[in-house]
Protein: SIMPL domain-containing protein
Amino acid sequence: MRTTMIAAVAATLFAATSFAQVNQTLSINKDNRSITVSATDSAFAMADQAVVNIGYQAYGEDEQSAYAEGSRRSNAISDALAAAHVPADTIESQDQNLQPLNEYELKNLPASLKNMKFRITQSWTVRTTPNDAAHVLDIAVKAGANQSGSIGWEMKDPSALEAAASAKALAHAQAIAARMAEGLHIKVGSLLYASNQPQEIVRPVPMMAMAARAKTADTKQLSISARRVERSSTVFAIFSIE
Structure:
């Protein structure tokens, strides 16, 4: 009995201390016993939006020739996407850079790039449907986008998935509180307070280099399938003790 009382008091004091730091408007003291629980859970859904990363890397013997080759590739890629009726407002420029190669890079250039002194790079993202991701990538690569391939999988409206993760985490917290109370021979009452911290599960996908352009227009596009999107939420909850 003494052990049970100590555990119950400890739970009360911890709740009082933790909650006092979070919310000063609710008074929790020795006459207002409670159990504090933290729980994490996740929710999943198939992505309904794909973010396709496309780009190119080109070289030149001097600054002007590198820029000219970059301009040719840049406009070829943009024209190919436009010809395929990819909406302009779904295409966003990410980076463009023209710079001389450093000494280490010059020494380690492959034979095919001998005498090259400058490198130009440019990249974009294209937001599209999961079903069209492979098509967009195929168009860009065949137009000269030799530094392309990574795809981000997203939800157009992530709020529903975040809410589902928070609800699961709260239910998880309530189940934990009930088990704690059962061990203390007490009963969990109403929810006094809850806060959640949504967390996105990040799965980085490296950029995939496609060094050679497809030799013919008849080359089939890659087979690409959408991935699940996960959202995780951690809930901090305080329950009264009856």
Residues 159-183 form the longest helix (25 residues). The helical segments are 2-22, 63-83, 103-107, 133-142, 159-183.
